[in-house]
Amino acid sequence: MNKMKKYYYGICFLISVAINILFSTYLYVGDGRWGENNQEISCRSSLTWSEKAASEAEAVAAISCSGHGRAFLDGSISYGQPVCECYGCYGGTDCSELSPGCAADANSGDPIYLEPFWMQNAADTTVVISGWHRMSYEYDDDPMMSTELDKYIRKLHSIAGNAITQDRYIVFGVGSSQLLSAAVYALSSEISSSPSNVLASIPFYHLYKDQTRFFNSENFLFRGDTSSWKSNNSTDNMDVIEFVTSPTNPGGELKKAVLGGKTIYDHAYFWPQFTPIPGPSDHDLMIFSLSKLTGHAGTRFGWAIIKDKDVYEKVLNYIYLANAGISKDTQLRVLKVLKVAIKEDGKPFFEFAYNKMKDRWDRLAFVFSNSTRFSIQQRHPLHCNFFHESRLPSPAYAWVRCERDEDEDCRVVLEAGRIIGQSGSTFSAKDRYARLSLIKSQDDFELLLQRLTELVSFENGNMETM
Amino acid sequence: MNKMKKYYYGICFLISVAINILFSTYLYVGDGRWGENNQEISCRSSLTWSEKAASEAEAVAAISCSGHGRAFLDGSISYGQPVCECYGCYGGTDCSELSPGCAADANSGDPIYLEPFWMQNAADTTVVISGWHRMSYEYDDDPMMSTELDKYIRKLHSIAGNAITQDRYIVFGVGSSQLLSAAVYALSSEISSSPSNVLASIPFYHLYKDQTRFFNSENFLFRGDTSSWKSNNSTDNMDVIEFVTSPTNPGGELKKAVLGGKTIYDHAYFWPQFTPIPGPSDHDLMIFSLSKLTGHAGTRFGWAIIKDKDVYEKVLNYIYLANAGISKDTQLRVLKVLKVAIKEDGKPFFEFAYNKMKDRWDRLAFVFSNSTRFSIQQRHPLHCNFFHESRLPSPAYAWVRCERDEDEDCRVVLEAGRIIGQSGSTFSAKDRYARLSLIKSQDDFELLLQRLTELVSFENGNMETM
Q: Which of residues 299-338 of B touch A (CB under 8 A)?
């Protein structure tokens, strides 16, 4: 019996020790380091009401679109989740199917080129908006605009060194698009019988003309090109409002006013990634756009920097009457994005953006260097105050000229080469020119370059074709 | 020796069993159910890039403003965190200091009345926007507008039963404010020598006049009140565009057009919380606003429901030329909010909103019932299709009339009683009237009621004072 007892206690002891070994293993190895399989330890995140939305956002971001597209929270739903929205010529449910022979769409200035930067900075640029965020029409200290955002915009310009903001007023708009029109209204004549003459230099962004004509106010009239105007009119005592795009769209050159009247400087592209910054711009009315700076075109945000108080109040009045200010959700998002853009004096952001554009131009210029049929704009080095050295511009667009006599409609010529560009006449220039966008997604750019390479090689290989 | 051995093994066995008990207790009780004190189990939230922003948002939401204010992510920073922005007459760093004698500000239609609902539904209405959310100008399947949001707006109208959307086009705008102007442009004459006549019925929302005059197009002219126009002009063959506000602002009555020409129906208040819904509205051009429906005025979102394709294209063109569409961040936020508003056939939301308004009107009506010096608009019961019973309207505003002969300027009379309202002339009506907003925060309403009660009691207690 004693032997049985000893045997029994021995077994219990061994079992007890075995259980302890199991428990130890479970606790010190199985705390999650085994990965997702180990679900037994319940884990309470410290988040409460925001966790559901955060999980939802991460789940959607994790939807694989083969690296050639993106799924968004508000995309169309298919099989219970938002669909992949594909870039370039990719398609299929996961954007993995490349459509052979598909045209490279380089028509729109859709600025997806910076998407990788924001994905790399995901944690800092995410914004969580509560259901009760800023329901009021007004801020506590301003009827329409965020004081914090105003502050960061001024910091941004100080860091980029591209505009004077001290003692200047700032007004936000729904994209710089809205501010172009607000500026025209603010600067225009108050005498209907003597409307202001609105002009721009060819090639110019079509919106100046289309918008001005559309609003069709008694206070202003779109007159067209500055050169034609200058040769037909003495500019003394003439009420002119001149749009000055600097750098130009599409060419990318820095410009000054030519008429000596009132000016609206459209500085949408006046950032280090597109052009050397010789110094801070200091004009009476300057308009900037978030779209081209950070790539957030969908957010619809622009701002005007204004010297004169009376003009400022008129621009503000436009924004108030047109739509009672811009979305406060948008203003919060922009604040988040700009805080990241200006980190470490803007170096990581502007270096990323510049390197992206430089790389694209290096490769593009190489392709065109092999062509006599097509040419692109000349670029001249300038000292850049931001990067502290002389650099070539890297404009957002290639302004392509078809050099052969018979190639009068360059857009059509490119289209035959499966490249979609914007015709010169869209910019009130000759159709011998066409604009190609260089700021779309990497997939779009790669396809553009491929098609251009094919086109140029056709040219060199076989002068008869196309 | 054997005895020592037995003793030794006995002790080991007991120790082993004790350890078993400890481990068991630790595992099956200490898995977090002890609460926050139990920190030993390392806890990895499954969130990654969104966690920082989510924590930040929750931390700001948790800032105590004594229940009399709100701190926001983009508020001014003081001592390292956003300041409290206080309601009504509260002030101080935590909004706990009530300023005695401070005036009740009932001027603005700032719709904070629904804030508690959104706070109660925090988890469902939070939206997490990644740094790369919809950077493009366009949606995959539409140049400017979210297809999902369009779908939910149609569901909303179907549930509320307040508008026909089938076979109708929808256009989004930066608040209904923007769509009012877009509609005027879309409906107006294309012959400058014969501009359209834009009219509205007194008392009308000032923006119709201010906006129309400001844009000063050659295509339209603001002519004023419909009644005056009707008595001076035959409406046959006259190019008229009539703003029909239904329910009216400020009175809250349902209205129809009076001129028989083109109409723009401003249905900003045509929701069950403000008025009985007799049936779905079916006019050619109807404009709705998120601001008054859900209270999200700061978001700046409205939509137009349009019958005619040509008119639709013109309104779309306005939005495109004015600002290339509205913010995609805004559209995502609105989608989230509307998904919650229509849950359970809209019952929780509309019941909450209606009960809030009804409670305010019951209390307000009681105060005014004791007054002969002031009167407010009469309300008449109507059958409501949404609530399936006859109900009194509960308008967003009280339209106060000063009854005493000498009280010609009602706004001034109320101001002396420390109540800030909007003068009748702001609505092109007589200054014998003043508008009081009933849709602000609960703190604002309580103070308004208190001041009104004081004012009325003065009237009854002492006819000489004030």
A: 299-301, 317-318, 321-333, 335-337
Query: Does a structural domain hold residue B183?
Result: yes
Closest of B95, B75, B74 to residue B83, by C-alpha = B75
Of the three residues B103, B129, B156, the one that is the final residue of a domain is: B103
Share of chain B above pLDDT 70, in %: 93
Averaged over B232-248, what is the pLDDT?
87
pLDDT classification of B37: cutoffs 50, 70, 90: very low
Same domain, A177 and A95: no
Are A310 and A450 in a shared domain?
no
From the list A50, A134, A317, which residue is nearest B58 (CB)?
A50
d(CA B450, CA A407): 79
- Per-residue pLDDT band for B223 (boundaries 50, 70, 90) equals very high
On whether the CB atoms of residues B3 and B10 are closer than 8 A, the answer is no
Residues B431 and B362 in one domain: yes
* CA distances in angstroms from A366 to A361, A454, B96, listed in the order given: 8, 13, 67
Q: What CATH number is attached to the domain comprising B434?
A: 3.90.1150.10
* Residues B163, B79 share a domain: no
Residue B371 lies in a domain: yes
The predicted model gives A438-451 an average pLDDT of 96
**CA nearest neighbour of A174 among B323, B408, B14:** B323
**Which chain B residue shows the shortest CA-CA distance from A177?**
B323
- Please give the Cα distance from A342 to A335 (Å, whole number): 11
Q: What is the full DSSP assignment across A210-229?
A: HHHHHH-BTTEEEEEEHHHH
pLDDT at residue number A42: 46
Compute the distance between CA of residue A174 and CA of residue B182 in angstroms, rounded to an integer: 15
Q: What's this model's pTM, rounded to 2 decimal places? A: 0.89
Whether residue B248 is found in the same domain as residue B306: yes
Distance from CA of B256 to the nearest CA of A (A): 25
pLDDT in tens, A122-138: 999 999 999 999 999 99
Whether the per-residue pLDDT at B34 is higher than 60: the answer is no
Q: Across the interface, which of A51, A75, A215 has its CB nearest the CB of B215? A: A215
Q: In this complex, do B43 and A47 lie within 8 Å of one another by their Cβ atoms?
A: no
Using DSSP bridges, classify how beta strands A84-86 and A69-71 pair: parallel, antiparallel or unpaired.
antiparallel
Partners of residue B307 on adjacent β-strands: none
Total tally of structural domains belonging to chain A: 3
Are both B276 and B338 inside the same structural domain?
Answer: yes
Partner residue facing B129 (CB), from A148, A192, A333: A333
CB under 8 Å to B37, separation ≥6 — which residues? none
Q: Which of B336, B100, B215, B282 is nearest to A56 (CA)?
A: B336
Give me the torsion for CA of B19, B20, B25, B30, rounded to 10°.
80
Report how far apart, in Å, the C-alpha atoms of A408 and of each of A415, A433, A463 are. 13, 8, 17
